[in-house]
Amino acid sequence: MQFTMSMDLSAAPEEMWRVLTDVKRISECIPGCENVQEIERLAVYTATVKQKIGPFKLEVPADIRIDDADEPARVRMHAAGSDKFTGTRLSVVMDVTLVPEEKGTRLTVDAQFEVNGRLVTLGMPMIKRRAEQNFQEFESRLQALLEKA
Amino acid sequence: MRPAAFEYLRPTARNEAIRDVQGSDAAFFYAGGTELLLALKMRVLRADRLIDLKRIPDLDSIHLSEQGDLIVGARATHRQIETSALIQEALPALSQLCSQVANIRVRSVGTIGGNLCFAEPHADPATLLAALGARLHLVGPEGERVVAADEFVLGEFETVRGEHEMLTHIVIPPQAGPSSYRRFRHGERPSVGVGMSWRLAKGGKVIESVRIRFGALGPRPQSVEAVERCLAGVEIDNASDELAVVLPDALDALEVISDRHGGDDYKRHIALTLLKRCVADCREAAVVRRS
Predict the structure, then answer these.
(1) Read out DSSP for B102-133?
(2) Please, what is the average pLDDT of chain A?
């Protein structure tokens, strides 16, 4: 599953960078993301992702790694983890790009998202739609956070 | 695979069941178990407590109320509904629907309440019950409440029922006309279901109003106002012609999810065909009813 979003913001890339690398605040934009721990600044983090569809519940302890950070223009990161009980594996690769514009910055997020495991047997279209909803929610929370900053 | 260990309780009264379900983080009511036990065995669902409802009396009763409402207990099995003389007489569409659920093993133990509460998006009963204007009675720690069948299902596997609420029975108001439910048979793909209910004017020749619900196309049963509107006030013999005026464009309003069983255009086409068959069924039943 591939998701893309972009938004124009009034602040300069350097200012955006400060907000985007505040991992605690950014993680609050991700629906179901809890308990974020910094293992190494701008390199390694851990978090728990919780999701619920009706009676089906997922709790995924995830490792998050920043693969490449080019201040203040680009970050590439990946996150992966498995729910122990259902054996459901989630993984995401995300590219965040900041391009300076005449008045502010253009922010682009590209995410490649994968779900594997028994829970997928409930229906991939349903899981895809849930992922889309979450990504939209992430977009609106992120926009609110960045506009405030 | 075996399910993970869970506690198993068998209350004999509704209030005991409500008390029991509140005592754990992952408690589920258990009636037929045709979907629940499968999910537990597959380990896509974790339960630490099951509350067996089979010892609670009257949860599977099928009868007419004094007001003429048809009452179907939530624990009534598909087979009970299929073979109930009362339902065969009052609502043949519901009895036929239940006769086509899955296979005989599922119909013998699977319950209508379990089917509704699990809210598997391809299940049939929610669609017809919404078309019939049914009401669902829930009882929980806060007391009893009634929810329209139309509002019960929120999406795939999600309903308005709280975790501590039990669906006790379904109330289907007296129908002032015929109803029909058409679907691809079990095993045929893609899943599409259409439920229809007519309200006939006095004399039985004119359709006063129509309720139609399309199931399994989107996350929950849907109505299409343009189709319902075009049939209101029409003579039963002209229903098919009137329908042809708004079809197929009216069905563009449906939310249809493509999957490996069929694209949205193909599913819409099936919905259209089933809709026409529902109209033909209702017309035929209306003629029989009049004579």
Answers:
(1) S-HHHHHH-BHHHHHHHT-TT-SHHHHHHHTT
(2) 91
